[in-house]
Amino acid sequence: ILGADGAGPYITHATMGKIVDAGIVDASNMGAAMAPAAHDTLSAHFADTGRAPHYYDAIVTGDLGVLGQDIVRDLFMDDGVELGPRYMDCGVLVYDIEAQDVHAGGSGCGCSASVLSGHLLRGMRNGVWKKILFAGTGALMSPTMTLQGESIPGICHAVAIESERC
User: Fold this and answer.
1) Could you tell me the pTM of the whole model?
2) Residue 3 lies in a domain
3) Would residue 4 count as lying in a domain?
4) Do 34 and 156 touch, CB atoms closer than 8 A?
């Protein structure tokens, strides 16, 4: 991914997101704060590229956890779009949700980094996936904002990673 030459995988598209504030004030509910930004960026990516979700073998968000992942699914269902099993979240993938008591899953940039650099890229090299839309998520907050009860805006940027050059 880091070089212009080589066997790939390749970043073929990038979609920069915008700040989305859904009015969430609960710092314990980061998935709900970031999910609308993920929905907005993924929707923009599909509109900008003319691609539908089924173009990708996997659509992966950063660290929404179980609840945030469900919110993204619901927001797309409201748009009449079914993401299906191709949609996953790093906060869910980083743990074995069935075997470990991790409640809603993982949160924080470490989820995205470890799942992308480990599980996803290895899967691409092994032929599990050829086209991944990876959407890192983040919350724009500070301890002062949280203590003052201010809402927590979310942000999301996406990159299309493909095994072959376009």
Assistant:
1) 0.92
2) no
3) no
4) yes
Residue range(s) defining the domain that contains residue 102: 10-162
Inter-CA distances, 34 with 44, 72, 159, Å: 16, 9, 17
Summarize pLDDT for 117-141 with one digit per residue, the tens: 999 999 999 999 999 999 999 999 9
Q: How many residues does the chain have?
A: 166
The amino acid that residue 122 corresponds to is R
Question: Which CATH number is 140's domain given?
Answer: 3.40.47.40
Q: What is the pLDDT of residues 7-60, one digit of tens each?
A: 789 999 999 999 999 999 999 899 999 999 999 999 999 999 999 999 999 999
For the chain, what is the domain count?
Answer: 1
The answer to the question of residue 5 being in a domain is no
CB-based contacts of 141: which residues, under 8 Å, 6+ apart? 27, 33, 152, 153
